[in-house]
Amino acid sequence: MAIATINPTTGETLKIFESLEDGEIAAKLELAQQTFEQYRQTSFQLRSQWLQQAANILEQEKADFAKLMTLEMGKTLKSAIAEVEKCALVCRYYAENAPNFLADVTVKTDASHSFVKYQPLGIILAVMPWNFPFWQVFRFAAPALMAGNVGLLKHASNVPQCALAIEDIINRAGFPAGAFQTLLIGAAKVADLMADERVKAATLTGSEPAGASLAAASGKQIKKTVLELGGSDPFIVLESADLEAAVSTAVTARMLNNGQSCIAAKRFIVAETIADQFEKLLLQKIQALKVGDPLAADTDLGPLATPGILQDLDKQVQIAVESGAKVLTGGYALEDRPGNFYPPTIIIDIPLDHPIAKEEFFGPVALLFRVRDIDAAIKLANDSPFGLGASAWTNNEEEKNRLIQEIEAGAVFINSMVKSDPRLPFGGIKRSGYGRELSIQGIHEFVNIKTVWVK
């Protein structure tokens, strides 16, 4: 795949970038290693000052960064601005909390003094996706840099300007040259990077095949990885739920980021007794969404990021229909305009024994299922290779407790949509990956947790 900015709204190629040569990659690796030897000795106070300045830059220039995201991957401008603001938030969170998260922890033993010490590992490789081109990077970079590590970013090939802008932000914030570098390279170069002894660990957010490939390359070198992969998150609505709130949230949870989010609600599992009403309200709200130019203030849904994503999504919908499912609205690519536009779509009557019922639809397509009770809802929710997040709606305390206890996922949100928050760990189980980002758990993923015993 070419490294290029191709406007998904118009299909126009705006800028093409040359991939780094091997010698250029080697020079960046050497700079990263040299920087680490000095950077690891810097104080938390200094790192915190730099990270706070990065937050200042993000906030001051959020309109420009947001427009860049919209031009490269098609998210609405208002959601892009919110993404930049969230990046500033995670920078401030770790700038303020990392010193406590990484402070020595005394443990009482029969030693004179025993404690746990947290130390940086070195160069961490981040392989990041296009759907949240700033947020995915900063939720890695903020804790990694505060821990004293240095970062190499291999970003998705369709958001190169975002990748370069992030490096520029970190440099302008005051971090040493080499503390965070963008590598404009193809995926084929990742295994070579992992084979380099200076690269100590890696994190990836992306598809299952990409995660499996990185895990295999890292496993050969016995190096730590954190993977955040796909999801087919259930959105369960039971009889006692506030139906209006559930439906309104369902639309946001499915259509977030033009439907291109790992933690978007994808499978709507609704109690039979309220399913007709839920379906009617959902249809009304989804049909009212405006599809159009993501730079326009009144647009609800922009284009998909690439033609390939559009084609894959459309193929999935057609397979669902061929299997016996029914399309209530949407269900076809919009060919009356340039760009990668797909309308908000609802599919019902999907055969549960068909593979399509378990797949991730990475676009504005909602799969609607009816179940008789909470037992059937939990069973269907767990009948998935994924386990990233789950949203469940009920006002029955016993049902809340069962949903929290029995749903197989890295996160369960009751009467709210699934979202990431710097204060809470984020990640999945099963084929959704392993490890955690954010919170104290996120910063502990890429440090040496050293036991110290002094007699």
UniProtKB/TrEMBL annotation:
GO molecular function (one): aldehyde dehydrogenase [NAD(P)+] activity
Top-level lineage group: Bacteria
UniProt keyword NADP, yes or no: yes
Keywords linked to the UniProt accession: NADP, Oxidoreductase
Segments forming domain Aldehyde dehydrogenase: 3-452
Family (UniProt): Belongs to the aldehyde dehydrogenase family.
Protein's name according to its UniProt entry: NAD-dependent succinate-semialdehyde dehydrogenase
